[in-house]
Amino acid sequence: MTQETTALAHSTAVRVSTDGRSQSGDRVRSAARAAAGSVPVVRTGPTGITAATPLVMISSDGRTAFYGDPSPAAVRDLVDELESGTVPTADADAVVEHDPDTASLPVPERGSLSVGRRDVLGPCGWVAPLEPADWSFVSAEQTPDAAGAVGLLGRGRGDAATDELVAETWETAIGTDGDPVVVCNANEASDLPSGDDTLLSGAPMAVLDGMATVAEYVDADDAVVYVNESKTGLQTHLREAIDAAADILPVVPQLVAGPDEFRAGEPTAALEALEGADRIEPRLQPPAPAKRGLYGRPTVIHTPRTFAHVQRAVAQPDSVDADAADPGTRIVTVTGDVSGPATVELGSSASLGAVREAVEMDGSFKMACVGGVLGGISRTLDMAPTAQSLRAAGLGTDGIVELFDTDRCAVETVGRRARFASTENSGRCVPGREGTKQLAELLRDIYDGSFESDKIRELGRVMRQSSNCQTGAHAPRPVTTAIDEFEPEFRAHTDGHCPSGTCTEKL
């Protein structure tokens, strides 16, 4: 049984998009056995669409048939038909005609894969993730000037330049005395977001190339990829990717595992963890990491999403709209009361509401939490996915949309998030340590008949303005936005009535 390591070298091939689950491996083995070396069988990374994993793609000369989670026996039949010279299409979920040399997954006209765009996500599920031959590296030859020139913003909670110009961070690091270092912050303990993991699993070369490009620009000889210690499979995968690209990248990163704690994903807390601190907590700022970061060195710390966007902007500068307020695309994980999470990519002119087309909800839509566990609550997704639009709506920009059905209670939903913040904050500052506790208590009081809306809002204002950490600053957001949208529900609870019929006890 043989299995190819490169996907793009073959016009005829069987691709099996996997996420590491055992049944995914079964499909790969079935295809490889059936092909017996006559047809290349390539294991690719995840596409981002959980419901379509494992996904088998049968390609030949610019035509690809898609099969979502076929049985091993069905895979063998598909390979047999391909060996006979025909792309099997009779029972395919989709069939796409495309450029035979495309390096990006061909997009069907319908279904979850058709939602949004596949720019940064393009290689995911289509190329062999650990094969440098499937990737065009730019870091050894080009600088990230194009990414800086278009005004690319940092993406994700773990980015030290979240929703800010990344080029300014780079210039600060360049202008600061000391030896710069570049950090890719992929430590995310929450199980909600999957955009970074999708990129690291499906297109690790894009992230590593983006890191090396920035490292070359700021004249850094050292780089670090920081991941969760619990994600051992991802660690193994990344070590293989780093080893495979070591002879190509001008700067080869180290891989370091950190605590599986929510607070450890905050940028400066990540630096504390990398330095081996016993207590993981965010640092007081200023100075920013670009001035004083890892071991006191000027440090550029971005998420995998940011580095992948940098790489694409450098490799294909014409693909990024420099006139947009938020250039590039936004990678969004859609989860919540859905049959299976999905990670999609939206352009700045799209509607965030398009994410609902990528998943199937368990019930009727009631509300969404946008921006992670401490994101904002909204009845509508009728807005652009840009940082500016989301902030104007009081929502978060972390690239997560949780869809909730009508069985969800707004009070219970935000109460649990307030309690999460009260236990997960670092305790370093008073607003984060005490404010989150007071917030949780004020929400519990609702069940005892006391709803002090003005007091909750004033506490939220103080926490946003004075908290040192993101947890303290963002903890009020789910609560205040939910009150804006569902105040009658909050008042109903003071009378002992839950309109959703789900609250049976105090949080």
From TrEMBL:
Keywords noted in UniProt: 4Fe-4S, Iron, Iron-sulfur, Metal-binding, Ubiquinone
Superkingdom classification of source: Archaea
Disordered: region residues: 1-27
Ranges for domain NADH-ubiquinone oxidoreductase 51kDa subunit iron-sulphur binding: 411-456
GO function terms (MF aspect): 4 iron, 4 sulfur cluster binding; metal ion binding
InterPro entries on file: Nuo51_FMN-bd, Nuo51_FMN-bd_sf, Nuop51_4Fe4S-bd, Nuop51_4Fe4S-bd_sf
Entries under Pfam families matching the protein: Complex1_51K, NADH_4Fe-4S
PANTHER family documented for this protein: NADH-QUINONE OXIDOREDUCTASE SUBUNIT F
Family classification: Belongs to the complex I 51 kDa subunit family.
Designated name of the protein: NADH dehydrogenase subunit F (Ubiquinone)
